[in-house]
Amino acid sequence: MLQIKNLHKSYPIGDSSLHVLKGIDLSVTDGEMVAIMGSSGSGKSTLLNIIGMLDEADSGEYVLDGVPIKNLTEKKAAIYRNKFLGFIFQSFNLINYKNALENVALPLYYQGLKRKERQEKALFHLEKVGLKEWAHHLPNELSGGQKQRVAIARALAANPKLLLADEPTGALDTKTSYEIMAFIQHLNDEGKTILMVTHEEDIANMCKRIVRLKDGVIMEDTKVDQVRAEQYV
Ligand code: ADP
Ligand code: MG
User: Is the pTM for the entire model greater than 0.80?
Assistant: First the structure.
């Protein structure tokens, strides 16, 4: 699914720079469910954003589904993002003036589908996350867990090969976090490859593999016995 070799990333800070990623090597194969852990500021989001083509590394190699990701035009990057990737964020990132259905339908618009087909597909995905009855509600009429489920439906609408999640449970209470994790595990059971950032140990243990970042490098990369989330919901 993806191979990363010797990836480096710095941010300019005034006259100097902050070297955040200092030679990351990481491979993820189809069907994995990986947690990226590390303390605040350790570069988790930076790495995920590079993997998600929202940001670019300074050096190193990145191959996603056989495609070398380097020096892409913004247009090409957008095409690959839409084709390969779905995103979930801590703060949901829904569009506030669009209802649940319209939010989920948005990636399908960029795929060039006709309106009717977009609506049908979006409704199918909303039903999958148990929110068919909420299709015409705006985000501010939904609970946090419901918003994240809309965001998951949106992330899945274009059938991405890889789902990227940056602290997907970070804004949710414990019970709702486990509900969302149960849902994400179910997607992985169905074959979706998932890469998620979290700083919570119990959430990471619900993945199948944990990668720990420290001082800009991967200091640990281990397979774990997946804790099932549904037993807590
Ligand atoms: P994490 O997600 O692990 O908390 P980040 O990847 O967000 O860490 O950030 C890593 C470090 O890089 C932090 O010190 C952060 O302040 C810094 N950083 C992140 N984004 C930028 C940016 N756009 N410009 C400058 N510094 C940044
Ligand atoms: Mg972060």
Answer: yes
